[in-house]
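User: Here's a protein and a ligand (uridine-5'-diphosphate-xylopyranose). What would the complex look like?
Assistant: Let me lay out the input and then the predicted complex.
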Amino acid sequence: MDVAVIGGGYVGLVQAAGMAHLGHRVRVGEADPAKLEELEAGRLPIYEKGLAELMDEGRAGGRLTFHGSNVDAASTADVTFLCLPTPPGVDGAADLSVVEAVVRELAHALEAGSIVVIKSTVPVGTTSRLAKRLAGRLRLVGNPEFLREGSAVTDFLRPDRVVIGADDEDAAEVVASLYEGLDARVLRTDLTSAELIKYGANGYLATRLTFVNALANIADSVGADILDVVEGMGLDPRIGPHFLRPGPGYGGSCFPKDTIALLATSRQAGYEFTLLQSVVDADRSQRHWIVGNIRRMLGGDLADKRIGMWGVAFKAGTDDIRESPALKIASMLRSEGAVIAASDPEAHSLDVEMAPDPIAAAKGAELLVVATEWPEFRSVDMTEVAAVMSGTAVYDLRNLLDPARVRNAGLTYQALGRPHA
Ligand code: UDX
């Protein structure tokens, strides 16, 4: 079928390349001229494992083209996916201005009854409100994305589920048929439930993660090993082993935004979601807890202390630094006078001095913080690190490194929730 994807970002490019891989003819609308130029030249403006290959396959098969005009992209499409940004507004609720502008544009340009799929994460109730306003002109369907950055291509090709929210049966059938090439459970529901599935999933995962981070802090104080604790917890099939790794808190373009948006939605719905508010507060506290530990490790004062940081991306496998806990911690350390040098295999930040490699980032450092769990950091020669550092402290926020290798190099090792590692 003919598919349009409006928005060539982290989600849109995976959706477009994935749909082309399934045999559909895909036209991407991208408004940013610089990004469009990159895409037309066959270059990817983002780092996402496996995406370049999928894009090349689609282009080589003549099933993937890029357009500066949304109407050019969508005018011949059977289905148009909106993969547009919905960043948090001033009150935390999502800013829908881009989505609403494109919906208005398409409502005027496309044939009556054209199917437009909202893949962007929009506040609960949005799609239903838009569908009513556009009745007779566009048929709106909800199809939230569950793509994790760093594994987005795999998540598209092997999804746990495809959620389709619709109040128009035919339109839902058309959208469901696009995914037939995937062996996936298709869950059909109404527009509003589809939106709440997305927020509910991310809100729950953020809660799960924040709970584990709190347990890690307790483990540090009571002398338990958090990795044994989460392994033991994860053996309960009601909990499961995934998504239990303690760290500096959650970042990225979704959890921080979606938890705040869900709080705004619940407030507007007349329900004070105190549990989720406590998760948001606890996630912020996790960074203060870590900065407090670092301050203590450096004698109680961070002024002029040089700190090496391994990782600035919000997590391994991506170059995305949006809401990165590493950079938030770096900013807090710098506000107390610390000097930060960071290294990351893919991501780059203008907020800290970026060193060319992990050893250079550790040069002259009194303390080294492992902030993002890039596997590359595990193979760095720690004796070389010890030779260039001015201090000996390594603080591993991701429990990534082998404590014995660190200690054998003459360094001290502290992690999250592993006081006896
Ligand atoms: C998330 C959801 O997983 C995905 O379904 C949704 O579509 C988009 O938001 P993403 O933000 O890419 O995906 O990253 P994810 O892998 O979920 O991690 C979110 C945050 O939690 C990251 O900061 C990550 O470092 C952190 N995390 C995750 C941990 O600290 N420990 C874990 O065990 C898992």
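Summary: The two ends are 55 Å apart (CA to CA).
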